[in-house]
């Protein structure tokens, strides 16, 4: 085999870090005699210019087609040395690092002889590996311009505006008839008590009117297909049965018979969280965008009774009603996708002891927010739903559906992060509007962790909000009241609060978008939220190239954090798109078509949908954009047809043999 | 001559290998008879590599990956665990069944864990004595 290759071995002294322990000269003399080694040399610092110049000089002059750099861990300079080798004209994937610092001179610094012997084995192992390496072609794929943002809440809106301002074409896709998301419902925002709509509405308008944003509302991503550098989204646009000729006069809604007093069909308003009814033709809320009404065919007499009712169509001055409208399919081709599918409020019905769903005076914080909206179903007043009279005593219960016992299927184990401050906010709003109201917050731990939160919490106490440490055991409707029984953990007393209204601070849970996530090959963490690439240092990226995540889709967070993360996701997407092309990692699986029997074992174990058997050729085909190079497929392949480049069996076996006790003659 | 166990440690790039680096940086020592092969993931750990290592005279084989649930590739370490369990039955039949193959985990920050694993494993091999296959191979 000798004479087939010209390998250079460069041994670094690391300024003594290596050479004080390992006899570098002995290693060099050993390496010189190895098969295919054309030159072995030692250098004071490979990471300094002298080392890299030497590397390039030898590659050029000796025409090296393989290099082993014996130095520190490959995590330090493997990329640098490969780049330098490439500059000098050698295929960068023919260079390997022999780690003789961290895993030799450092770890065995009191045993120089043994360390030197081990360094020889390590070098030999890598020389043997390099002898079997093949040059790899670095493939690139052009990244399709454009980005799709899925979800039109504050996260999606903010990310869209930033990307559009940078000149990217943005397609913002929202499932419901309007953008705005949960923030639009929130009335006021903590800890500043800004009017939510006053801060959100300008951003809604900006994204709606932005020349670089195409807005698809009432539209759902049905499928996402991946090809190198491109995502192709199939988006289904649901029919509104109202054309964009709509002038927003509201006459149709006024005349629609659904949800009127006598109507057999009553529809709960999604916007008002079931505290009010809505018509079958409606605008979700006054500031909704686009300002185009929508007919809900599931509750419309026209659709339910064979065209019996056409009132809206008759009163519409713009002739905007079109009952014949059909679903449309749009194809969106983009390079990047931002998932901003947000959260929904947990339904506390399974927690029977809280009586939610059994008594009208037990509501959730989101419902309560609607009450506190001056435009809302109770015109801004906290009232008892049972009587319509003002609620004089209000008990808020924290951690409903959050921070539950591990394994309890009815609740979530995580903290929803925002509910403490939502309760503090709502309690203050009531105390300010109607100071005589008694407001209790029953909590487990009060988490006022954010900027200005502690002060906000303190202010609520000054306003007279009463905090009781303890969660109620039972909430029992009794006569005109709802009795809340709680053990006050700080005083040891058992309290019974005769409340007029009980407000449950229900958990935030991810919107049910499993199908979308599966289509995008995204994982979820155990709590059901989208799994980020790294929880600490890559919270906006995902394991899927070109797919980013923002807002509550990734985990519960408040509006401040959502905006910050949406900005970060936009930046990550912009950097990705701006690079224009993506480099495909060549260290991925490869199939030898001659050996493949199309048994599907590889497709069964692949976690990344990166391999499939081509039905025509009956050979496994690797999707190189999806393959991560983990090599599971290579182990289960019965014929050895599939293996990860530079980690093939012959290459690894050569390293094993070289490291073996009997291989090295000292 | 005292017996110095020779051990082959297959380490995944993200956890085991990084932990070994970390051990070195922290100047934690373990015997020089521990030799490391870098794999991208323990998921590419073929049972045959274990057999080959023993065939070439190693006294023990370690596979050090990520902790369960932390695999960089989702489930490579789970596959490795199953494969290593399978090959263990073969090792037993060969008379190498006294724990000469171990699969464990050390995260990238657990340098001390790696050093401890390596030291304990070498000690165990020292107690067990040379691999019985060494003699066979030598013949």
Distance between the termini of chain B: 20 Å
Oligomer description: heterodimer
Return Rg of chain A in Å. 33 Å
The percentage helix of chain A is 25-40%
Query: What would you call the shape of chain B?
Result: globular
Q: In short, what is this structure?
A:
The complex is a heterodimer of chains A (666) and B (139). Chain A is an alpha/beta fold and 666 residues long.
Blueprint (SSEs and pairs):
The complex is a heterodimer of chains A (666) and B (139).
Chain A: E1 7-12, H1 24-32, E2 37-43, H2 49-62, E3 66-71, H3 74-87, E4 95-99, H4 101-105, H5 112-131, E5 139-142, E6 147-150, H6 154-165, E7 170-173, E8 188-189, E9 194-195, H7 196-209, E10 213-216, E11 219-227, E12 230-237, H8 251-255, E13 267-268, E14 277-278, E15 281-282, E16 294-295, H9 301-304, H10 311-315, E17 328-334, E18 336-339, E19 343-345, E20 362-364, H11 365-372, E21 393-400, H12 419-433, E22 438-443, H13 453-462, E23 466-469, E24 474-478, E25 481-487, E26 494-499, E27 501-506, E28 508-510, H14 514-519, E29 547-549, H15 559-578, E30 581-584, E31 589-591, H16 601-605, E32 611-614, E33 619-622, H17 632-636, E34 642-644, H18 649-659
Parallel strand pairs in A: 1-2, 1-3, 3-4, 6-7, 6-18, 7-10, 18-29, 20-27, 21-22, 21-27, 22-23
Antiparallel strand pairs in A: 5-30, 8-9, 11-12, 12-17, 13-14, 15-16, 19-28, 24-25, 25-26, 31-34, 32-33
Chain B: E1 7-12, H1 16-25, E2 34-39, H2 47-55, E3 60-65, H3 76-93, E4 101-105, H4 111-128, H5 132-138
Parallel strand pairs in B: 1-2, 1-3, 3-4
Helix pairs in contact in B: 1-4, 2-3
Describe it for me?
The complex is a heterodimer of chains A (666) and B (139). Chain A starts with 6 loop residues before the first strand and ends in a 7-residue tail after the last helix. In chain A, strand 22, helix 13 and strand 23 form a beta-alpha-beta unit. The mean pLDDT of chain A is 95. In chain A, the strands form 12 sheets. A 5-stranded parallel β-sheet of chain A has the order 10-7-6-18-29, covered by helices on one side. Chain A has a 5-stranded parallel β-sheet with strand order 20-27-21-22-23. In chain A, strands 2-1-3-4 form a 4-stranded parallel β-sheet, sandwiched between helices. Chain A folds into 5 domains: 130 residues, 3-Layer(aba) Sandwich (Rossmann fold), CATH 3.40.50; 177 residues, FAD/NAD(P)-binding domain (3-Layer(bba) Sandwich), CATH 3.50.50.60; 88 residues, Alpha-Beta Plaits (2-Layer Sandwich), CATH 3.30.70; 164 residues, FAD/NAD(P)-binding domain (3-Layer(bba) Sandwich), CATH 3.50.50.60; 60 residues, 2-Layer Sandwich (Alpha-Beta Plaits), CATH 3.30.70.20. Helices cover 27% and strands 23% of the residues of chain A. Chain A has 18 helices and 34 strands. By secondary structure, chain A is an alpha/beta fold. Chain B is of the alpha/beta class and 139 residues long. Chain B has one domain. In chain B, 45% of the residues lie in helices and 17% in strands. Chain B has a 4-stranded parallel β-sheet with strand order 2-1-3-4, with helices on both faces. The longest helix of chain B has 18 residues. Chain B is globular. At the A-B interface, helix 4, helix 5, helix 17 and helix 18 of A face helix 1, strand 2, helix 2, helix 3 and helix 5 of B.
């Amino acid at each position: 085999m000798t004479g087939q290759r010209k390998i250079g071995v460069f041994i670094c002294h690391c300024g003594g870090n290596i050479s004080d322990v390992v006899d570098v000269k002995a290693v060099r003399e050993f390496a010189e005699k190895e098969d295919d080694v054309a030159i072995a040399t030692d250098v004071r610092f490979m990471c300094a210019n002298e080392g890299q110049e030497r590397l390039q000089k030898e590659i050029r002059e000796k025409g090296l087609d393989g290099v082993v750099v014996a130095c520190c861990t490959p995590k330090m300079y493997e990329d640098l040395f490969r780049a330098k080798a490439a500059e000098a004209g050698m295929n960068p994937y023919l260079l390997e690092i022999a780690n003789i610092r961290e895993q030799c001179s450092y770890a065995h610094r009191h045993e120089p002889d043994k360390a030197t012997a081990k360094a020889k084995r390590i070098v030999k192992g890598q020389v043997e590996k390099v002898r079997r390496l093949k040059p790899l072609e670095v493939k690139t794929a052009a990244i399709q311009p454009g980005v799709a943002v899925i979800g039109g809440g504050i996260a999606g809106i903010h990310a869209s505006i930033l990307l559009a301002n940078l000149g990217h074409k943005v397609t913002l896709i929202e499932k419901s008839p309007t953008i705005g998301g949960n923030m639009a419902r929130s009335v006021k925002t903590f800890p500043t008590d800004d009017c939510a709509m006053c801060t959100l509405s300008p951003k809604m308008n900006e994204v709606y009117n932005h020349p670089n944003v195409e807005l698809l509302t009432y539209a759902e991503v049905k499928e996402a297909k991946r090809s190198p550098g491109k995502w192709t989204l199939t988006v289904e646009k649901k029919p509104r049965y109202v054309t964009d000729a709509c002038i927003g006069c509201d006459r149709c809604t006024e005349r629609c018979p659904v949800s009127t007093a006598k109507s057999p069909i009553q529809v709960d308003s999604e916007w008002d969280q079931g505290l009010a009814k809505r018509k079958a033709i409606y605008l979700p809320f006054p500031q909704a965008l686009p300002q185009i009404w929508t007919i809900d065919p599931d509750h419309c007499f026209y659709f339910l009774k064979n065209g019996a009712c056409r009132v809206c169509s008759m009163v519409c001055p713009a002739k905007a009603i079109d009952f014949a409208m059909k679903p449309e399919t749009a194809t969106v081709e983009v390079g990047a996708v931002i998932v901003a599918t947000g959260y929904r409020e947990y339904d506390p019905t399974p927690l029977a002891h809280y009586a939610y769903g059994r008594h009208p005076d037990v509501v959730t914080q989101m419902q309560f927010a609607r009450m506190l909206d001056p435009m809302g179903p109770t015109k801004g007043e906290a009232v008892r739903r049972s009587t319509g009279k003002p609620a004089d005593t209000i008990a808020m219960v924290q951690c409903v559906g959050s921070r539950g016992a591990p394994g309890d299927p009815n609740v979530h184990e995580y903290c929803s992060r925002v509910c403490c401050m939502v309760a503090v906010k709502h309690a203050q709003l009531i105390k300010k509007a109607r100071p005589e109201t008694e407001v209790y917050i029953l909590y487990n731990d009060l988490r006022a962790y954010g900027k200005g939160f502690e002060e906000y919490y303190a202010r609520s106490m000054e306003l007279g909000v009463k905090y009781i440490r303890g969660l109620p055991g039972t909430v029992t409707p009794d006569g005109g009241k709802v009795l809340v029984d709680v053990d006050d953990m700080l005083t040891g007393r058992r309290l019974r609060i005769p409340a007029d209204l009980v407000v449950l601070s229900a958990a935030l849970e991810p919107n049910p978008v499993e199908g979308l996530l599966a289509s995008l090959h995204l994982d979820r963490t155990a709590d059901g939220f989208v799994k980020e690439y790294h929880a600490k240092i890559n919270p906006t990226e995902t394991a899927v190239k070109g797919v980013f995540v923002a807002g509550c889709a990734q985990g519960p967070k408040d509006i401040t954090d959502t905006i910050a993360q949406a900005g970060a996701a936009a930046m990550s997407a912009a950097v990705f798109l701006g690079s224009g092309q993506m480099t495909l990692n060549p260290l991925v699986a490869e199939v030898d078509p001659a050996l493949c029997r199309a048994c599907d074992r590889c497709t069964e174990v692949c976690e990344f949908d990166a391999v499939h058997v081509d039905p025509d050729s009956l050979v496994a085909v690797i999707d190189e954009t999806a393959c991560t190079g983990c090599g599971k497929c290579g182990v289960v392949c019965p014929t050895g047809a599939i293996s990860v480049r530079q980690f093939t069996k012959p290459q690894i076996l050569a390293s094993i043999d070289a490291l073996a006790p009997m291989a090295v003659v000292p | 001559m005292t017996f110095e166990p020779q051990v082959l440690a297959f380490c995944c790039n993200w956890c085991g290998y990084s932990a070994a680096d970390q051990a070195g940086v922290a100047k934690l020592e373990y015997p020089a008879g521990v030799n490391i092969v870098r794999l991208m993931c323990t998921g590419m750990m073929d049972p045959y590599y274990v057999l080959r290592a023993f065939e070439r005279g190693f006294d023990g084989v370690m596979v050090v990956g990520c902790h369960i649930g932390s695999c960089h590739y989702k489930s490579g370490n789970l596959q490795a665990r199953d494969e290593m369990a399978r090959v263990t039955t073969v090792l037993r039949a060969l008379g190498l069944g006294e724990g000469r193959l171990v699969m464990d985990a050390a995260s990238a920050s657990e340098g001390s864990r790696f050093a401890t694993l390596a030291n304990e494993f070498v000690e165990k091999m020292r107690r067990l004595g040379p691999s019985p296959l060494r003699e066979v191979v030598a013949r």
